[in-house]
Amino acid sequence: MDKVMAAAAQAVADIPDGATLAVGGFGLCGIPSTLIAALVDTDVSGLRVVSNNCGVDDWGLGLLLRAGRIARMTSSYVGENKEFARQYLSGELEVELTPQGTLAERLRAGGTGIPAFYTPAGVGTQVEEGGLPWRHTHDGGVLVASPPKETREFGGRRYLLEEAITADFALVRAAVADRHGNCVFHAAARNFNPLCAMAGRVTVVEAERVVEAGELPPDAVHLPGVYVDRVIAADGSLDKRIERRTVRPVPAGAEAAGPRTDSEEK
Asked: How confident is the model at residue 254 (pLDDT cuts 50, 70, 90)?
């Protein structure tokens, strides 16, 4: 089955108000920027987004957030987005913060038909006890708080029950996809992308390169096409941004010594 669609706008056209989206990426690495840009160009709103983080103020999911299109986020890290913090603290945005490994496993479980699982992450904290603020009131109070989690002992150790996550749609970025939806990811850009793809009822992949069916060696495939419903070519004109660029000081005397050889680098 040929799953390639002509344009990103066509691929996201049926995402309705209030839909749940699982969105791949980690920071700004491996984010489906073409599909996000296509969503920004629609008037869809009230989105309930599951993603490791929410981009930055002017890129990634931060574009949807700034436009007021996101009603709820399930994330593990949100520290690079000031607008996110403003909306959360003012009661405009509901936020469920989840330990990163737990978030990954909730998505994987959703994609494999496992309704829930036990994990030691969060035992003895507010993750277990409940009361974490999901939504604030306009004056800083707590309008919606996390519920307590069920616990059980295995081998003398206590574990929390975490429910799986499924989504109406998944938006994913791949390095290469074939026309049947088989995907290959590049290095760290794989991150949450395969997990989100598995958890989506309708999964849309943007690929930097689209190839014919049969061109990808079976052993090279990271995500089988059975999880993918639509494929589009990523917009190569969009930036691949670095969330936070850091450099270390040049050691004293390094410039005078000249460039190091390969053996010195090792």
From this structure: low
Q: Which of 54-58, 120-124, 156-160, 163-167 has the least mean pLDDT?
A: 54-58
Which residue has tokens 């507010």? 126
Q: Of 160, 127, 161, nearest to 146 (Cα)?
A: 127
Distance of CA 80 to CAs 28, 58, 60, 84, 200, Å?
10, 11, 12, 9, 26
Q: What is the pTM of this model?
A: 0.90
Domain parsing of the chain, residue ranges: 8-115+164-233
Whether 148 and 130 have beta carbons less than 8 Å apart is answered as yes
Backbone phi, psi, residue 232, to 5°: -130, 160
- Mean pLDDT across 152-168: 98
- In CATH terms, 8-115+164-233 corresponds, of 3.40.1080.10, 3.40.220.10, 3.40.1160.10, 3.40.50.300, to 3.40.1080.10
The rounded distance, in Å, linking the Cα atoms of 151 and 67 is: 39
Give the pLDDT mean for 215-241.
95
